[in-house]
Amino acid sequence: xxxxxxxxxxxxxxxxxxxxxxxxxxxxxxxxxxxxxxxxxxxxxxxxxxxxxxxxxxxxxxxxxxxxxxxxxxxxxxxxxxxxxxxxxxxxxxxxxxxxxxxxxxxxxxxxxxxxxxxxxxxxxxxxxxxxxxxxxxxxxxxxxxxxxxxxxxxxxxxxxxxxxxxxxxxxxxxxxxxxxxxxxxxxxxxxxxxxxxxxxxxxxxxxxxxxxxxxxxxxxxxxxxxxxxxxxxxxxxxxxxxxxxxxxxxxxxxxxxxxxxxxxxxxxxxxxxxxxxxxxxxxxxxxxxxxxxxxxxxxxxxxxxxxxxxxxxxxxxxxxxxxxxxxxxxxxxxxxxxxxxxxxxxxxxxxxxxxxxxxxxxxxxxxxxxxxxxxxxxxxxxxxxxxxxxxxxxxxxxxxxxxxxxxxxxxxxxxxxxxxxxxxxxxxxxxxxxxxxxxxxxxxxxxxxxxxxxxxxxxxxxxxxxxxxxxxxxxxxxxxxxxxxxxxxxxxxxxxxxxxxxxxxxxxxxxxxxxxxxxxxxxxxxxxxxxxxxxxxxxxxxxxxxxxxxxxxxxxxxxxxxxxxxxxxxxxxxx
Length: 576
Fold this sequence. Notes:
Blueprint: H1 7-23, H2 29-41, H3 49-55, E1 67-72, E2 75-76, E3 92-100, H4 109-121, H5 137-152, E4 159-167, H6 175-191, E5 196-202, H7 204-212, E6 218-222, E7 228-231, E8 234-240, H8 241-248, H9 272-282, E9 296-299, E10 302-304, E11 310-314, E12 317-320, H10 322-334, E13 345-351, H11 356-366, H12 374-377, H13 382-391, E14 397-399, H14 404-407, E15 415-417, H15 418-429, H16 433-438, H17 447-453, H18 460-480, H19 485-504, H20 511-515, H21 523-539, H22 544-548, H23 551-575
Parallel strand pairs: 3-4, 4-5, 9-13, 14-15
Antiparallel strand pairs: 1-2, 1-3, 6-11, 7-8, 8-13, 9-12, 10-11
Helix pairs in contact: 1-7, 4-6, 8-10, 9-10, 13-18, 15-18, 15-19, 18-19, 18-21, 19-21, 19-23
């Protein structure tokens, strides 16, 4: 007799069925449930699809961990990221560990596994070489990243949270299961006495509630004085610091990440500017805050001032003033009792741009007070907007404004992130798939490489062709069911490079040659390229060290040179 399900479980299963069909990647229900669980847990962090995928480590030898995400001040940390000198004191470090089981109950075994892997890999002296073969590369790398990041920030007095999410379709938590959760918390708290450690059970009821949550795209901002307006779509106003803090903050007291322009939102941490902002906030004198600060700039799709006592802002994005906003949020988070007595104001400008070009110019012009990393402002260059406009009618959506198309309801397979395109371009046009694998978050920092990859003279079809082939390669690897997520992550850009070499007959494919390619009948070429790359990858050791080194690239080029040489000879003979 089948188990009796309650309404929440029935509704959850139907919702998962529909979303899985819309996802269009034919993932098994267990794998899709892992992806879905991580997406819901990370929803408030504005994490992109690629970042969600990168944190899913559920494979053989995963130690009971299906997903693991490290966040510093709310931003996902990548394995190639350099955090030295980036953050100031009182840094928030969050380690989110997910176990997702598509079952109708919560049981003890997953918690026992999480307890064991935590004891082994949260030890700050753990040597990953001792656990190779016991845990997979992606799990070891994720815990190693946590260890290195946390240790590097220890002088900044980080506030550490380690949160375990056990997700299933369960309804109730049996006392024995809760005791195992309590034991896990005790074990980890013993290793990190000052950390916040929790185990959260997310069952059918909680998942349904989370899925029904929608970010409000209309925000109200109280103003201290009647706002000035030079037109119906531009307002300048003084806003009480406490009211601005409320505008920035969600119900849990966290900074609302989606308010910040997605690609210019790197908090700069320990800088003279930020130190001065915090000193100004903490000082008690007769000087108003806005006298000493340039204020913030917000772009929106619509703004109005009914009654002149507040601004109604549709789809606000704070494109300048992240440093100021972050320091204000931190100030009141540490001194919440001062919200009711705050008298000082901040200057706020709200603008509805006439076009995307105007929006990008506003972002570039207003980001001059604090040095913004080059990679953050890159996507306001005209070439990126052109890439987005070119891809859109062809069914791919270049997400230069992070999560814009995710929030528009586009499918993961249709969305091309900035980092994914950069990795694909590096693999093909610079012939360095090893760099693409090893340096996903820093590829745009190199001026010479950037100018080569995003030259205004490049044919826009190049970006579409390479994105299309990159996505099709990734989907082919996933749908085969043959390769682990770690193996896919390691070899996908090597396969893409091999595909482009075979299609062009050139070991160094150029922008002009790629742009001229047709995309008919590429499935078989992708399949044979996967076989070639995977065979070489496994023969060299088959791990992430091999994928990040240059041996696999060198071996692959040798094989491809011989292959296109033979193919060229055969074509010549057939033409004679």
